[in-house]
Write a sequence for this structure.
C-alpha cells in the first residue's frame, strides 16, 4: 500500500501546491535596496523610496515643530525649547531609525542655534551658557537616537529569531512521523520556498531512488542558483537544495536558517531510510522463517507418500508378492492413493505461492452455489463415506459472482478439514443463506473445539493444533481458503459451536456493484 | 487400415510417453510417439492416426497452435493433456477443435475412457450417428425430439431440449461453455455462463434423481459440461 501511495506522488508531485505561499515569507527587512535604475512601478513599492520618505518626513516634522516654537519664542525659555526639541527627535528615531534620527539631531542643533540662540539668525554664539546648552543638546539628541535605534534593532532581531524558531518548529512538526521520501522532499522544498520567498526551489535526492522536486513546476532559470545547500546526514550527502532568488540577496542569517532546515530534512530522510531498512530486515527474517517452515513441512509431507509409493512399487516389482495375492491389490491401491495425495500437496503449494504473490485473481462468473457444492460432494464421495454430510442450501438462492474452480477448492478444503477432525458417523453440515448484501456460508462439524485464542491463527500457513504426524495434510488448506475468499472480497472466520466447530465465510452478492443478470425468455415447450 | 486403432502421442516427457505407450500397446492399440510439435504434425500427416493425444506444453510450439494446425485439414479426434491450473489453455484448445482433455496426473481408466469416446465419435462422424442416446433411465431420441425418464415423457422448453440434444449427441465429450452457449443461444451470448448454470439446474431437476449430485449431466469445473451415456 505504502509504495503505491508514494508512486502517486511521483507521478504528480505538483498538484497541491498552494500558490499563495510564494509571498508569505516576504516580510523580511528592507534595509538593503537594489541599486540602479528602476521603472516607476517598482519604485513606488521599493524600500528605496520608503527610505527617502523617512528623511523627508523627519524634515517636515522638524520644520513644523520649529515653526510652532518660533511663534512661542518670546514666551518660552531657551532651555525649555531645547528640552521640547528632544520630543520630535525621540519620535523620529523610534519611527524611522538611526539615520533619520542622527540627521535630525544635527539639523535641530543648527536650527536651534539659528532661530533660538541670540544673536538670532546667525550661527554665532555669544553666551558661554548657550554653548553648553548646544553641546549638551547635541549629545542628548545623538544618545537618544542611538538608544532608540538599538532597542529597535534588538526588537527586530528578537522578532526574526522568534520567526525562525516558529518556522523551524513548523518544519519539524510537519516532518514528524513521515516515512515517505517523496512527502519529506515535498514538505522541505515547500517550506524553504515559502520562507525564502524564492523564485525557484529545486530539491534533488540522490541514491538508490533518485528524486527531483521543483517549485514552482515551471522550467528552472538557466543561471546558476543563488544558494546551494547540501542535504547531509550521517551516511553521507543525500542530495541538495538549490535556491534561486535574485533580490533581495540571501543574507547570511537566511543561509544559516536554510542550513538548519536542510539538516532537519536530512534527519527525517535518514529516519525514513532506517525505518525502511528495518522493515526490510523484518520481512527477510519473516520470509526466512517461513521458508524453513515450508521446507521442513514440505519435505516431511512429500516423503510420507513417496515412501509408501516406493515401498509398494518395489515390492510389486520384486518376487515377494505373488500376482494373485490380495496384498497386491492393496499395494496398488496404496500407490494410487498416495500419488493423489502428492498431487494434492503440490497443488496446494502452487495455490499458496500464487496467493502469496498476489497472482490469484478470481475469474468471477454468476454461479449457483448448490452446483459447486454438488460437484465437490460428488468428487469427495469416498472421503465422506464415514460421515453424514447434510446440505442445507435453499433452492431459490440467487446467483452469486464467484470463481467456480476456486470456490470448489474452498469447499473441498473446508470439508476435508471437517472430515479429518470430526468423529466418524457425525454430521457435517453445509448451510447457506443470503441477506441484502452478502452470501453467508457455514460449514460446521462435531469435531473438537479450538481454543478461542487460536481461532484466528488456524488460517495461518502451516499452523496446526495437533502434531503434524497425527493428521495428514499440508497445513495449507485453511490459509488457501482465506486467500481465495479474501480475493473475492469476502471474509472468513472460525467459531466454536456448543457441540463442535464451524467455518463461516461471506461473499459479496454484487459484482463491481452489478446485480445478477436477468435471463432471456425461453421459447415455448417442445 | 488395420483393425487395431492407431494412436499418435505427442508429449515431450519421455516418462509419460513410455507409460502411455506401454499401457496402450497392452490394450491392443498401435502407438506412434513424437516429442515435438513439428514432428507430431508431420507424423499426423504421414501416418494418418485414428486419434491424437497431445500435450499442451511442448518445447517448440504451443499445443493450442498444434491443435489449430491439425484442424486445418483433419477431424481426427484430439485429446489434450495438460497440468492443473491451465484452464485457460485447456479451454482455448477445446474451442480450437480439440475433443477432450485430461489433467496430469491422470488415472489410466480415465485415459482409456476418453480414448474410447474419441474413437467412437470419429466412427460416428464417418458412418451413421446414433439417433437414440440412453443414459440410465434417461432416453433422448434425437430424431423425434422426445425425452423420456423411465417410461414417462419429460416436458422440456425449447432451449432446454436444444441444450440436452447437443450434450447427448456429443455424449462422453466435454463441451466448453463457449461452444454450448454459441450452439444453443448464439455467438452473441457466448459470455453468459450464467444461462448455462440456470438451464443445467433446470435440466438436472427434470432428469436427475438427485439434482445436487448429478450422475449424467456433469460439470467440468472451469471448462464446461459433459453428458455421460451408457456404453
Amino acid at each position: 500500500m505504502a509504495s503505491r501511495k508514494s508512486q502517486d506522488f511521483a507521478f504528480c508531485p505538483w498538484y497541491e501546491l498552494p500558490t499563495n505561499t510564494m509571498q508569505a515569507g516576504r516580510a523580511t527587512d528592507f534595509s538593503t535596496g537594489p541599486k540602479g535604475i528602476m521603472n516607476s512601478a517598482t519604485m513606488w513599492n521599493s524600500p528605496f523610496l520608503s527610505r527617502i520618505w523617512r528623511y523627508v518626513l523627519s524634515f517636515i516634522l522638524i520644520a513644523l515643530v520649529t515653526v510652532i516654537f518660533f511663534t512661542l519664542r518670546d514666551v518660552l525659555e531657551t532651555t525649555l525649547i531645547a528640552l521640547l526639541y528632544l520630543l520630535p527627535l525621540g519620535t523620529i528615531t523610534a519611527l524611522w531609525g538611526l539615520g533619520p534620527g542622527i540627521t535630525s539631531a544635527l539639523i535641530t542643533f543648527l536650527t536651534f542655534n539659528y532661530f533660538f540662540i541670540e544673536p538670532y539668525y546667525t550661527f554665532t554664539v555669544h553666551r558661554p551658557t548657550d554653548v553648553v546648552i548646544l553641546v549638551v543638546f547635541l549629545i542628548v539628541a545623538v544618545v537618544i537616537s542611538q538608544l532608540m535605534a538599538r532597542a529597535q534593532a534588538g526588537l527586530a532581531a528578537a522578532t526574526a529569531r522568534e520567526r525562525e524558531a516558529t518556522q523551524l518548529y513548523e518544519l519539524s512538526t510537519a516532518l514528524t512521523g513521515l516515512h515517505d521520501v517523496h512527502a519529506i522532499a515535498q514538505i522541505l522544498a515547500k517550506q524553504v520556498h515559502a520562507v525564502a520567498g524564492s523564485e525557484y526551489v529545486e530539491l534533488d535526492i540522490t541514491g538508490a531512488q533518485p528524486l527531483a522536486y521543483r517549485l514552482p513546476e515551471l522550467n528552472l532559470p538557466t543561471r546558476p542558483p543563488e544558494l546551494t545547500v547540501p542535504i547531509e546526514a550521517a551516511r553521507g550527502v543525500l542530495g541538495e537544495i538549490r535556491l534561486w532568488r535574485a533580490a533581495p540577496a540571501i543574507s547570511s542569517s537566511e543561509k544559516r536558517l536554510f542550513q538548519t532546515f536542510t539538516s532537519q530534512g536530512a534527519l527525517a530522510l535518514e529516519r525514513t531510510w532506517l525505518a525502511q531498512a528495518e522493515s526490510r530486515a523484518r520481512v527477510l527474517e519473516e520470509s526466512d522463517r517461513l521458508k524453513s517452515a515450508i521446507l521442513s513441512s514440505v519435505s516431511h509431507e512429500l516423503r510420507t507418500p513417496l515412501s509408501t509409493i516406493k515401498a509398494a512399487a518395489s515390492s510389486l516389482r520384486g518376487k515377494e508378492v505373488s500376482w494373485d495375492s490380495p496384498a497386491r491389490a492393496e499395494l496398488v491401491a496404496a500407490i494410487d492413493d498416495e500419488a493423489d495425495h502428492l498431487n494434492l500437496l503440490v497443488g496446494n503449494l502452487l495455490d499458496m505461492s500464487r496467493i502469496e504473490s498476489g497472482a490469484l485473481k478470481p475469474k468471477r462468473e454468476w454461479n449457483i452455489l448448490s452446483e459447486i457444492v454438488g460437484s465437490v460432494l460428488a468428487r469427495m464421495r469416498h472421503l465422506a463415506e464415514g460421515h453424514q454430510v447434510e446440505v442445507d442450501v435453499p433452492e431459490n438462492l440467487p446467483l452469486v459472482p464467484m470463481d467456480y474452480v476456486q470456490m470448489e477448492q474452498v469447499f473441498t478444503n473446508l470439508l476435508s478439514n471437517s472430515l479429518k477432525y470430526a468423529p466418524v458417523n457425525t454430521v457435517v453440515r453445509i448451510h447457506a443463506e443470503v441477506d441484502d448484501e452478502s452470501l453467508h456460508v457455514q460449514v460446521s462439524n462435531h469435531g473438537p473445539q479450538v481454543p478461542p485464542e487460536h481461532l484466528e491463527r488456524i488460517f495461518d500457513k502451516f499452523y496446526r493444533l495437533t502434531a503434524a504426524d497425527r493428521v495428514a495434510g499440508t497445513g495449507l488448506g485453511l490459509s488457501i481458503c482465506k486467500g481465495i475468499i479474501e480475493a473475492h472480497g469476502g471474509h472468513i472466520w472460525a467459531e466454536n459451536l456448543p457441540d463442535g466447530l464451524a467455518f463461516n465465510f461471506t461473499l459479496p452478492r454484487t459484482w463491481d456493484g452489478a446485480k445478477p443478470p436477468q435471463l432471456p425468455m425461453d421459447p415455448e415447450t417442445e | 487400415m488395420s483393425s487395431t486403432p492407431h494412436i499418435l502421442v505427442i508429449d515431450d516427457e519421455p516418462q509419460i510417453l513410455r507409460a502411455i505407450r506401454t499401457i496402450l500397446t497392452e490394450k491392443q492399440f498401435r502407438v506412434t510417439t513424437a516429442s515435438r510439435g513439428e514432428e507430431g504434425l508431420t507424423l499426423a500427416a504421414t501416418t494418418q492416426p485414428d486419434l491424437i493425444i497431445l500435450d499442451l506444453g511442448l518445447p517448440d510450439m504451443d499445443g493450442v497452435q498444434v491443435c489449430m494446425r491439425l484442424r486445418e485439414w483433419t477431424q481426427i479426434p484430439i485429446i489434450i493433456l495438460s497440468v492443473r491450473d491451465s484452464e485457460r489453455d485447456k479451454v482455448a484448445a477445446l474451442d480450437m477443435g480439440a475433443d477432450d482433455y485430461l489433467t496430469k496426473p491422470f488415472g489410466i481408466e480415465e485415459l482409456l475412457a476418453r480414448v474410447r469416446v474419441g474413437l467412437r465419435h470419429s466412427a460416428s462422424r464417418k458412418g451413421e450417428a446414433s439417433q437414440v442416446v440412453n443414459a440410465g433411465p434417461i432416453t433422448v431420441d434425437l430424431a423425434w425430439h422426445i425425452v423420456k425418464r423411465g417410461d414417462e415423457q419429460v416436458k422440456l422448453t425449447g432451449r432446454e431440449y436444444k441444450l440436452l440434444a447437443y450434450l447427448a449427441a456429443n455424449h462422453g465429450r466435454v463441451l466448453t461453455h463457449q461452444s454450448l452457449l454459441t450452439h444453443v443461444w448464439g455467438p452473441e451470448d457466448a459470455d453468459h455462463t450464467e444461462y448455462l448454470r440456470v438451464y443445467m439446474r433446470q435440466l438436472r431437476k427434470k432428469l436427475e434423481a438427485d439434482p445436487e449430485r448429478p450422475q449424467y449431466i456433469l460439470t467440468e469445473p472451469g471448462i464446461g459440461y459433459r453428458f455421460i451415456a451408457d456404453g
Observations:
- Chain A touches chain B through 32 residues (CB under 8 Å).
- The longest helix of chain A spans residues 252-317.
- Residues 172 and 431 of chain A are 57 Å apart (CA to CA).
